[in-house]
Specification:
The chain is of the alpha/beta class and about 300 residues long. Helices cover about 35% and strands about 15% of the residues. It has helices at about 15-25, 45-55, 70, 95-100, 120-125, 140-145, 145-150, 170-175, 175-185, 195-205, 220, 240-245, 270-275, 290-309; strands at about 5-10, 35-40, 60-65, 105-110, 115, 130-135, 160-170, 210, 230, 235, 250.
Length: about 300
């Protein structure tokens, strides 16, 4: 087995900048990385941007291609606050088929993440009895979104976020996981709200190992104050969560506006610009958009005021 760390990201031409920034943040803290980019096609210019950046850090990069005709048939979210999601989100379902057969383990990362430290401990997670490892979200989030009922997941199993996954590829291949995921999609098309994340939870909720939030610090965790958090069968005490916030290894900008959108108010937004400054996109700054001001600043205030009446 290849001893280097295998890291997989998925992108299309529209997300290359953010993919480049995420990869740069990884390489600033980790060495000997084999990157695999899953795509349905990238321009030669964008492939060169990513390849040149990886070469600069003496890491490796391979492009893996999915069949766009298959992806286009998969359900996409209809909710307005999820319209920014592209079909690329489904690419992770095909990792067992796309990656070389001699690779038995990988870390999958979304491109709206910033890595702030060494990933060795995450990479060394023991997955002998599991399909993968992930960070579980607050049960209240899933309950409020009717997720447990919709997907028929037991409450005590919880609902994990699929932005960071440590995947046991041998387990996936031995247990035909890809086909199980795609079969679930086709048979439960109308139940899908959170795209591939719903599918992974529905099929693998009892085969996924929970890891601590430092490996996928969701906005809901970072902004929580003085309250315990129920994540599946695990209760994270508020003081414990504060310790995790002080030792974040992976920031996940899961909510909008994203750092590259005008009006982003995430407390760690500047982390994105810390790493973009090390890329060919260093001159990028978000354009002012009235729509973003309305959606993410004015509208929430008006809704809060309305609830108080």
């Amino acid at each position: 087995m290849n001893k280097n760390m295998n890291i997989v990201l998925a992108t299309d031409n529209n997300f290359v900048q953010h993919c480049d920034v995420a990869m740069t943040s990884i390489m600033e803290h980790n060495k000997n990385i084999n990157f695999y980019i899953i795509t349905d096609g990238l321009s030669e210019k964008n492939k060169k941007i990513l390849s040149d950046q990886v070469n600069k850090y003496n890491c490796t990069l391979d492009f893996l291609y999915v069949d766009k005709s298959i992806i286009d048939k998969l359900p996409m979210p209809q909710s307005n606050n999820l319209k920014h999601i592209s079909p690329a989100t489904y690419y992770r379902l095909f990792v067992a088929e796309l990656l070389p057969q001699n690779i038995e383990k990988l870390i999958y990362l979304d491109c709206d993440m910033i890595i702030r430290g060494d990933l060795s401990d995450l990479w060394n997670t023991n997955l002998d009895k599991y399909a993968m490892a992930a960070v579980y979200q607050n049960n209240n989030w899933a309950t409020n979104n009717h997720t447990f009922d919709r997907l028929n997941i037991p409450y005590n199993h919880g609902y994990f976020n699929a932005g960071m996954l440590v995947i046991n590829l041998k387990y996936w291949r031995d247990n035909n996981i890809q086909n199980k995921l795609l079969n679930y999609l086709h048979k439960n098309y109308d139940k899908i709200v959170c795209h591939d994340q719903d599918v992974l939870n529905a099929v693998l909720h009892n085969q996924t190992l929970g890891v601590i939030p430092i490996w996928n610090m969701l906005t809901e965790f970072y902004l929580s104050h003085d309250e315990d958090t129920n994540c599946g069968c695990t209760v994270i005490k508020s003081m414990e969560m504060d310790e995790y916030k002080n030792n974040i290894k992976i920031i996940h900008f899961v909510s909008r506006p994203k750092p590259w959108e005008y009006a982003c108010n995430h407390p760690l937004c500047e982390e994105y610009y810390k790493y973009i400054n090390k890329t060919v996109f260093k001159d990028f700054r978000p354009a002012f958009k009235t729509k973003n001001i309305w959606l993410y600043q004015i509208k929430p205030i008006l809704l809060k005021f309305k609830r108080m009446l």
